[in-house]
Amino acid sequence: SAVISQKPSRDICQRGTSLTIQCQVDSQVTMMFWYRQQPGQSLTLIATANQGSEATYESGFVIDKFPISRPNLTFSTLTVSNMSPEDSSIYLCSVISTDTQYFGPGTRLTVL
Amino acid sequence: AQSVSQHNHHVILSEAASLELGCNYSYGGTVNLFWYVQYPGQHLQLLLKYFSGDPLVKGIKGFEAEFIKSKFSFNLRKPSVQWSDTAEYFCAVKDTGRRALTFGSGTRLQVQP
């Protein structure tokens, strides 16, 4: 299994600002994923982050809005840029370990 | 594109009632199937998974799921629910072409004591 921690656990931000979310895993993993869970909805994959290469973004998500860093095999960051109220959501970090996908506790973001 | 459907959005049961939550997926190839649970205030946890073999899979806390390939379904069942099963349940699918999971919309289960 994998134990994942995220910082911050929640934040309230003003429109137009940016927030960087950190994800730390207790073991080295090749692939890390960032998901978004909007209020009352399911999880949507934002991007896949591999160490040493650029993140791969899903349709509807772009690097300028959601830049991702993956400096090593246990850490990643997701930045939500130029925020608007529509970005209010829970952002989750996820990794694969032994063919199973594990999730962090999430970061609850509210944009005013 | 692959999709996952959970038709029950909100289910309310009394304790000891039987549970069945539906999950259907659209991908026609080989898939891995998962059920996750999210208890109030907690993060997603794996309930059970199916990769191959016996289509009836047993998970934690008395849950089981049956993979029916001809119906593209992976329904979750529990013979007798408890108040502590109150949570949101997500079905997820991974096909051979992707590393990440595709999730259904989730089913909120409320068990009344």
Descriptive report:
- The complex is a heterodimer of chains A (112) and B (113).
- Chain A is an all-beta fold and 112 residues long.
- Chain A has strands at 4-7, 10-13, 19-25, 31-37, 43-50, 56-57, 68-72, 75-80, 89-97, 100-103, 107-111.
- In chain A, strands 2, 4, 5, 6, 9, 10 and 11 form a seven-stranded mixed sheet that branches.
- Chain A is globular and about 40 Å long.
- With 113 residues, chain B is mostly beta strands.
- Helix content of chain B is 0%, strand content 50%.
- Chain B is built from no helices and twelve strands.
- Chain B has strands at residues 4-5, 10-14, 19-21, 24-25, 31-38, 45-50, 56-58, 64-68, 73-78, 87-95, 102-103, 107-112.
- In chain B, the strands form three sheets. In chain B, strands 2, 5, 6, 10, 11 and 12 form a six-stranded mixed sheet that branches. A four-stranded antiparallel sheet of chain B has the order 3-9-8-7, with no helix packed on it.
- Chain B is globular and about 45 Å long.
- The termini of chain B are far apart.
- The mean pLDDT of chain B is 92.
- The chains are: A mainly beta (112), B mainly beta (113).
- At the A-B interface, strand 5, strand 9 and strand 10 of A face strand 5, strand 10 and strand 11 of B.
Spans of at least 5 consecutive residues with low confidence of chain B: none
What does the average pLDDT of chain A come to? 93
Query: Span between N and C termini of chain B?
Result: 41 Å
Name the shape of chain A in a single word.
Answer: globular
Helix content of chain B: under 10%
Q: Describe the main β-sheet of chain A briefly.
A: 7 strands, mixed
Cα shape of chain B:
globular
Oligomer: heterodimer
Q: Rounded to an integer, what's the Rg of chain A over CA atoms? A: 13 Å
What is the ordering of alpha helices and beta strands of chain A? Answer: EEEEEEEEEEE
The SS-based structural class of chain B is: mainly beta
Low-confidence stretches of chain A: none
Q: Beta-strand level of the residues of chain A, as a percent range?
A: over 45%
Tell me the helix content of chain A: under 10%
Number of helices of chain B: 0
Number of strands of chain A: 11
H/E element string of chain B? EEEEEEEEEEEE
